Amino acid sequence: MNEGAEAINRNQNPAARQRWAQHSRLQRMSAEWSAGYPPYMGSLTVWFVTACLSAMAVTGLFTGRPVLYVATAGFVLLSLILLIRRVGRPHSWPDITAQELTTYCPADAVAFRELQCSVAETGHLTARVLSDWLAKERSTLTRREYAFTSRQVRKDETGDIPNE
Hints:
By secondary structure, this protein is an all-alpha fold. Helix content is 66%, strand content 0%. The protein has seven helices and no strands. It has helices spanning 3-8, 14-35, 41-60, 66-87, 93-101, 109-122, 127-141. The longest helix is centred in the N-terminal third of the chain and has 22 residues, at 14-35. It is elongated, with a radius of gyration of 26 Å.
């Protein structure tokens, strides 16, 4: 299937849907990285809130209310789960993006190879290089074939249009 047909039929084709989902994740990562947001901002916020709730519930334990025992256990457990999930993940945008790119199937193989060569040459991935590649990839993914582009213009069609 060519890229033009994939762009048109991206909702019917599961492989194209997966490629678009991955491309959208990479686009979001690039935007957040360029804006200076720390990775996993959402999960860090949830962890911070549960840690604060845990601390508040622990201080309430001394009142002798059984409900606070259950709440404390729940908040502490949730905080630990979030912390454990974070330990196994990469902690920088270049590492997170590189992990996502390992499974990405590019639509523009030439541009992807240029990205690989650039990263191999410099030894690091930058937000600028990533956004440049994403622009090329999006251009390829949204490319469509139009009928008029392959039409040959006859010599008699190139003359001036008469006034009506």
